[in-house]
Amino acid sequence: MDTVFRTKGLTKIYDTGTLQVRALDGVDLELYAGELAVLLGPSGSGKSTLLNILGGLDQATSGHVWFHDLELTSLNARRLTQYRRDHVGFVFQFYNLVASLTARENVQLVTDVAPNPMPADEALAQVGLEHRLDHFPAEMSGGEQQRVAIARAIAKRPEVLLCDEPTGALDSKTGVQVLEVLREVNDRLGTTTAVITHNAAIRKMAHRVVYFLDGRIDRVEQNETRIAPAEITW
Question: Other CB atoms closer than 10 Å to residue 22's CB: what's the count?
Answer without folding.
Answer: 15
